[in-house]
Every structure is written in C-alpha cells, then in structure tokens.
Amino acid sequence: MATLITHSPILIIAIPLVTAFLTPLIGMANRKVRDALVIVSLAFVVVLVFALARDVVINGIRVYTLGATSPDLTIPTGFMVPVRIILEVDGMSIFMGIIWSIVSLAAAIFSLSHIASETGQNRFYTLLLLMVAGGFGMMFTGDLFNLFVFLEIASISGAALIAFRIKFADTQEGGFKYIVISAIASLMVLFAIGLLYAQYNLLNIGAIAQVIQYTTLDKIALALLLIAFTMKAGMVPLHLWFPDAYSVAPASITGMLVITSHACMYAAFRVCFTLYGSMLDAPVAGWILIVFGLLSMFIGVTMAVFQKDVMRFMSYHAISQLGYMWVGVGVGLAVLGNAEFIAAYGRDAMSGGIFHILNHAMYKPLLFFTGGALFHCTGTRDLTKMGGLAHKMKWTTILYIIGTLSISGIPPLNGFSSKILIYESVYQFHPILTITGIITSILTLASFTKAFHSAFMGAELPEYKEVKEVPRSMVIAMVILAAGIVFITLFPSLVVDWTIHPAADALIDQEAYITAVMGAIP
Amino acid sequence: MTFILESGYAFWNPLIWIIVFLVVMIVVYFFRRRGQKKYKKDTDQAQIFLCGEEVPEAGERHIRVGNIYWGFFETLKEYYNQILRPHTGIVNDYVLWFVAATAVSAIILLIAGLAK
Asked: Which residues between 478 and 517 in chain A have a beta carbon less than 8 angstroms from any beta carbon of chain B?
C-alpha cells in the first residue's frame, strides 16, 4: 500500500491512459467487460486520489520526479535546476483531483446507458479516458510544458467527444468551434512558455517562480497565459463558443467539460499565485479576474434566462457560476501582497471561490445530466416542446430540484454555504461584488424555476405518454452527484477545514511550492 | 462541531434550516390530513373548474417556456438587443474577442508596471 501511495501521482494519470488504449481491444471482444474495465479503472483512480489526498493533508506537498532513482529527487546530482518531468501535488492540485475523479466516474456510469444506442462506443470510452488523463495531468504537473501537453490531450479528446454523435449536424459545428478555440488558446500558452523559457532556460513552475523578474516579456507572457486560460474556462466576453460546444455534446461529456473549464481556471490561478506570485502586480491582476468574474456572473445569467434549449440554458448558467469563483479568488489575488487584508477577508474570499468550485462540480454536472435525461426520453432539447414530465420521470425531477436549489444558493443546500462565504468576504473589498452576486443568484432561481415549470410541471402531455424514467445507470450517476451535494450540505465545516482551506493556503503560500522542488539545492 | 461553518463574520448551521424545514413539512402534512376525503375519484368532482368554461386539453393549457417572463424580456429589450449582437455564432468573431482581450490585458499590465 505504501508503494502504491508513493507512486499514486503518476498512477492517477497512467491508469486512465493505459485503460484508454486497452478499451478498444477489449471492446472488440466483449462490450460488458469493456464497460466494467472503464468503471473499475475510474473507481480505482478515485480510491488512489483519496489516498493521495490523505497523504498530502498529513505530510504536505508531494513531488514525484519521473525517471529519477527516487521520486522525491527533484534535482539530479550535478545539476542546479530540475531537468526531469516533475509532478507536484499540493492542497489545490489534490482538491481539483478529487473533483475530477468523482465527476469522471459519474460521467462514465451515466454514459453506459446514455450512449448505449450510439455507434463507435469503443472510441467514445478511449476518448473519455484520454480526457480524464489529460485533466489529471493539468492538475498535477509541476512543469509548464507538460501543462501545455496535457491541455492539448484534454482539448483534442474533448473536441472529438463533442462531435461524437455524428448523426446531429450541430455536434460537428460544436466540435469544430471547440477545437479552433482550444488550438488558439494552446498555441498562446505555448508562446508564453517560449517567452519564459527564452529568458530563464527553465520549464519547471517552482524553478521559474524562484527567479522570475517580472520583465516586460514576463508581463506579455502573463497576459497570454491569463487570457488563454480565461477563454478556455469560458469567461465573458470570451465565452461565445461555450454554449455552442457544451450544449451539443453527450450530457455525460458536458458534465466533464465543465470540470475541464475548472482545470483551466486552476491553471490561471496557478500562473498568478504560484508562477508569478510575489512578483505580480497583484491588485491589477486581481481586478482583471474580478472584472471577468462580474461580467460572467451577470451576462451569463441574463443570457440563461433567455434560452429555450435546455442544454444552452445550463451552459450559460455554468458561465455565470464560474464568475463567482473568479470574483472570490480575484479578491484574494488583489490583496495578495497585503498580509492584513489577506487575514481580514482575502483568505475567506479565496476559500469561498474555491468552495464554489467544489459545489459547482457537484450540481452543474448533475443538472447537465438531468438535461441529458430529458433529451434521452423526449428526443429534444427544446423546452418549448416539453411539459408534464414530472409524471413520468420522478427520479429526474427530484434530482433536478436538488440541483436547482443548490445552484440558486437556497439554504440549506451547499451552494448557499459557498455563496455566503463569498458575499461576506468580498463585501469588505467592494460592496458592488456582493450586490451583483445576490442579483445573479435571484435571476438563477428565477430562470431555473422557468425551466422547471416548462419541462416538468403541468398536466401529462399526450406526446410523452410512452415516456419512462431513464435507465438505472443514469439515475445512479445522478444520485452519486446528489449524494455529494447532500454531504457538503450537512458538513460544510468538515469540507472547508479538510479541503478548501488547504487549497487556498496552497495558492497563497508560494514559498512552500518552490521549496518542495528547489529545496534540495545544496 | 462539523455542522457549523464559520464565515469569518458570522456562522452558518444547515441543521437549523433542516429542522425548520421538517417542522414546516409536518405542519403542511397536518393541514393536508384535515382536507376533504369524501370526494369521488374519476368523476367531475375531481376535474379542474374554470368558471364553468370547458377546460382546454393538456397541451393547450401548459404555459410554454416562450411565454414565461414576457414582461421581463419586454422591459429589457434594449439590453438584450445589445447583448445578443456579439453572439454571432462565427468563430472568426470569437477569435477577435480573444485578440482584443489579450491586447487590452497586456496594455493594462504594462502600463501598471510602468506606473509602479
């Protein structure tokens, strides 16, 4: 077991990667064995992630050097800087890993029935597992070039999965838009890495952070990295591709794509707090995040109210909710250099933003899954054609209500816990942030009520007389996420103390991240 | 106590809300139990009464999504006209926004750096 935990950072990436290539081979022989392999491998990854999380909480940051005689030998003998690929797992990375592992498993279970009638399922699961590996790579890597590589893996597999259902024309358009946007974002990330490498001859995040000077080229690299990840996360006004792509993917994939948006957000936070950290012009960078957050919150929700397509409706809500996280963490970044403000409200604002990532990762995939369940049963995403489905889809209705109450921040559900942390802390920075947040929350509840009435309420419609509840695997996947919501609702303090505060502290404490890699210098 | 979340300024305990919610549910159930039980199912007694008018079919009486919040959209018509304009669906436009945002951010960071 100790060996397993020692090598868990690489195993968490390698297991889905290896399974991805085994899946088509096994799938050709037996479909059920293939499905079992996918689920078992992802369930095993969940176990490994939680074991690694426990280790990180107890022993602090974990580094894993690939190809070294010992995984913690970050700098080889005779060298002054790291030259090998290094994975670095701190409180923030493992927090993202926990989210990604749970949602990936739920999405795979949901897919078992959701794509059962589609052709090319072997390729579907291969791509799904590649996206899982890419996501974990982005979260765990301590190296900028590998961040780019894993971003590419996640993006290319994501685009192929969006376009997976080739019988629908809009999926091809969505996949095309996603790959164009992803390619441009990735190229800008690569260009920024080139600018940093040209100056410092380094690729390791900790090593660059130790020597970075914040030159003019560094500022240009920061703008490129920040805006590329902002666009990939789907923030307003760079969100335009988001609903076009996310609304046409199979619902299970849309749930996962939301977490890839979180991963890009994580990369942006990592760049600001860890790579640039103390050298950064923190108030300016913080306000850039806050402005993107405010625009996303308000424009996202007002666009959502307007939608008639259930998946576009939920996509715009995802954009709106991402805004809360940017505002929370943005306020923390804006006061990063001021210990007094960090202690007074900065850390709480960041904790609120990070807590909202976790909550959003539970209720948003759940809501996308309910949207997928509606499409699965009615064959349409158009809310104008739906009605009275609560009579036929009782599980989906209950789970939709849980997701709706949670996203709207209705007490006592988990969405409220993170929103109150954000509201109370960002108010100290600027009251307009809290006011915008509350207005957004009201509009969120109003729009979800509208969608609920349109799809579920009313008398049973004759065209849906034959509709039945979705298959069991889809219900199980939704229940897993709803169980996550209930757990966080009941134990907010436990979750904040064990995962959120360590994640926020990991971002604030740049020195600890650098020391974990560079500490071995004689 | 793991149920209580300290926000730094106040505290939040979900258990209090859950208990209040359960009490309200019990009260609602109590009133429901006192309702009329002697009606005849599957007769006109259980039908919708619409001032004596004929009740439309299920599909006709369901208020569809396009008719909800009409007043809200009418009031904010100008806002929506403006906000829908960038949503062209054309990838070239999306990339243009990226270029503009990168340029503006880079200029802000550079100017802020000079002023520092």
From this structure: 489-494, 496
Interchain proximity B58–A451, CB inside 8 Å: no
* Chain A residues touching B108 at Cβ < 8 A: 284, 288
Query: Which positions in chain B touch A348 (Cβ < 8 Å)?
Result: 7-8
Cα–Cα distance measured from residue A17 to residue A35, given in angstroms and rounded to the nearest whole number: 16
Q: What are phi and psi of A335, to 5 degrees?
A: -110, 20
Q: Is residue B112 within 8 Å of A284, Cβ to Cβ?
A: yes
pLDDT digits (tens, 9 = 90+) for A395-437: 999 999 999 999 999 999 999 999 999 999 999 999 999 999 9
Neighbours of A260 (CB within 10 A): 24
Closest C-alpha to A469, from A386, A394, A381, A388: A394
Q: What is the pTM of this model?
A: 0.95
CB pair distance less than 8 Å for B6 and A231:
no
- CA A184 to chain centroid, in Å, comes to 20
Report the gap between the CA of B29 and the closest CA in chain A (Å).
19
**Cross-strand partners of A309:** A382
Domain boundaries, chain A: 281-490
The set of residues, in sequence order, having a beta carbon less than 8 Å from that of B106 and lying 6+ positions away, is A219, A220, A223, A224
